[in-house]
Amino acid sequence: LAKTTQPISMDSYEGQEVNITCSHNNIATNDYITWYQQFPSQGPRFIIQGYKTKVTNEVASLFIPADRKSSTLSLPRVSLSDTAVYYCLVGDWNTGFQKLVFGTGTRLLVSP
Amino acid sequence: GAVVSQHPSRVICKSGTSVKIECRSLDFQATTMFWYRQFPKQSLMLMATSNEGSKATYEQGVEKDKFLINHASLTLSTLTVTSAHPEDSSFYICSARELKPETQYFGPGTRLLVL
Questions:
Q1: Cβ contact (<8 Å) for B4 and A43?
Q2: Quick one: pLDDT at residue B1?
Q3: A6 touches chain B (CB under 8 A)
Q4: Which of A21, A39, B59, B77 is the most core-located residue (most Cβ within 10 A)?
């Protein structure tokens, strides 16, 4: 199983750009990198997924270097409602499909 | 993104009773669904993989006779907590696997409280 390492917590202010970096040194060739957001007492919400280079959608960007041993989730101009736990996951294809194993996540606190 | 629902959203039961939790993929078919549990201030822990039409695969340390999983259709998986005890109180979350691209979408979770 590929393991991921991310900062336990981060603080930011409204309107700032937030970058959360995740390390996954043992990522396998078939693994995708997926980021989820979780609010208290809710299920994780899919944010973005990528394999290499850069992926962008309406809420975030994901930067993946050529060696794929890390990735950075970029949240532009955060608001108070972005306060949540963010999980970086790398799929495990040993069973023939992507089995996600959650790490500790990064607790982001956005202040006024 | 795809939508996954869970029912009920919360349940309170007496010790020794069984509780069934449903997980549905509303706008896509899911041959594979997953069940997680989450304790307060902790991360999600994968309990089992639910495969449509076949037996579930349980993670190490998860009792298959206590947590019964049935995946009878491409849009429905159920988790039954049998003979529930207070230590089974937790937040149970399911996810459904969508293909093309390979992505998992999570349900809103079910809060179980066993008295």
A1: yes
A2: 67
A3: no
A4: B77
Q: Is residue B80 within 8 Å of B94, Cβ to Cβ?
A: no
Preferred mutation among B44, B51, B57, B58 to probe A, highest tally of A CBs within 10 A:
B44
Task: Evaluate whether B56 touches B74 at the Cβ level (below 8 Å).
Answer: no
Shortest distance, CA A41 to any CA of chain B (angstroms): 7
Q: Give the 3-state secondary structure of chain A.
A: CCCCECCCEEEEECCCCEEEEEECCCCCCCCCEEEEEECCCCCCEEEEEECCEEEECCCCEEEECCCCCEEEEEECCCCHHHCEEEEEEECECCCCCCECCCCCCEEEEEEC
Closest CA to A46 of A63, A60, A64: A60
Per-residue pLDDT reduced to its tens digit, B44-89: 999 999 888 888 999 999 999 999 999 989 999 999 999 999 999 9
How many CB atoms are closer than 10 A to CB A31? 18
